[in-house]
Amino acid sequence: MTKALRKPATNNALNVAHEISDRARDKREQIMQGALRTFLSNGYSASMDAIAAESGVAKQTLYSYFGAKEELFSALMDRLLEHFVHAGMTPELRSLPTQAFLRKLAQITLSQMDDWEYVSLMRLVIGESARFPELSELYLSRLVSPGIAKLAQYIRENDELAFGDPEAVARIMHGSLINFIIAQEILGGKHTMPMSRDRLINSLIDVILFAAQQSAQSR
Amino acid sequence: MTKALRKPATNNALNVAHEISDRARDKREQIMQGALRTFLSNGYSASMDAIAAESGVAKQTLYSYFGAKEELFSALMDRLLEHFVHAGMTPELRSLPTQAFLRKLAQITLSQMDDWEYVSLMRLVIGESARFPELSELYLSRLVSPGIAKLAQYIRENDELAFGDPEAVARIMHGSLINFIIAQEILGGKHTMPMSRDRLINSLIDVILFAAQQSAQSR
DNA sequence: GTCTATACATGGATAGAC
DNA sequence: GTCTATCCATGTATAGAC
Question: Under CATH, domain A2-76 is a member of which superfamily?
């Protein structure tokens, strides 16, 4: 009914094709959202029945849009990874004083990762890394590696951060943040070994800036 | 035959019971080793058939020793976690100069983690953290938390490492090492974004020691 | 106590009506 | 294109012979 209102009059072949295409996109989207929730909740072992139920379509419909479970999964992961590729360092961020920049960057990084979808994605990527090594590779090359590279470049170009091995320092910073999320959010450390984000960030910045000062001094 | 040689003469009830108990222990051990390999390779989704085959026993035998799959899994994980509880800081280690101590500690930590069983365990713990939160909790409380606590204590008691928040600094150090293993060994970063352990360790020690000097100076 | 054979449920994937 | 009903393999768990 509402459909007739949106698209009245002409019923030529082209319009029909277009309408079908629109519908197909909607259904496809509907499936992907349901499948995403199901996979992120239950891992790759989520059943196609469960996905169909969560998506609100029949199981056969899944197979008409995606040939097999693995294809659906891959398509989803591709899209999800793409979604989390962040804007990176905006010019305004880079123009901040060093300390403010590092704090802001750490906060942004933690905020992005402290999210149900992101945390579930990490669990899935790590948990299925034996079965889907390509997924791990994609995760590293799309999300981890660029983040480290940008941070390393920032360190390299910043005179206040005169480290001998910017790449390694970037890994240390990034790694301590990622592991904080893994421990606190994925493994439940927020309950069994709680620590506020700010405490971690403060110490991380202290350590990096102090080290940078000393490093500059000792040259 | 050899059994008769080891345990000759008397065949009273007690001896028989003992012999049975010995055998049972052996079978149990045999099952656990096969199950361990299978679970670590294939995750919790490993089938009982596969475990029976790998263990070299019939499926029913699994069920006579462990009531159900989940019990077998739990028993295994308990034992494996216990196995990896390391000696910790030996007195001779603590007597080293600060820099040598930190380097040695980092090397030991990475060496312990860079091991097929340990890596597989981490993947399993993280991957199944939604299904088995108790396993995550056990992992944190037995392996992670004590390691961080000991390192924090060392920092606190060492005059050369005058940090304001030893606990947070310990997390940063520990976290960057753990995440290095996750990225390089679990996610395949050793191929796609290679970096030697020594580079990471060197930079980590540089950063910590430089920061400590500066921190002491600025008091 | 251990094996073979089997029961029962669930998984992925497909056939056929509409 | 979408649904219902079904196929077939595999999974956990158990029964019964030895």
Answer: Homeodomain-like (1.10.10.60)
pLDDT digits (tens, 9 = 90+) for A42-72: 999 999 999 999 999 999 999 999 999 999 9
Q: Protein contacts on strand D: list nucleotides below 7 Å from a Cβ.
A: 1-5, 10-16
Average of per-residue pLDDT across A133-156: 96
Residue nearest to nucleotide D11 (CA to C1'): B47
In this complex, which of B45, B129, B195 lies closest to A168 when CB atoms are compared? B195
Q: What is the pTM of this model?
A: 0.89
- For the four alpha carbons of B145, B149, B150 and B154, in that order, the dihedral sign comes to positive
- Give first-to-last CA distance, chain A, whole Å: 76
What is the distance in angstroms between the Cα of A16 and the nearest Cα belonging to chain B?
45
User: For strand D, is any atom closer than 7 Å to the CB of A57?
Assistant: yes
Exposure pattern of B94-133 as b/e (b: 16+ CB <10 Å)? eeeebeebbbebbeebbeebeeeebbbbbbbbbbbbbebe
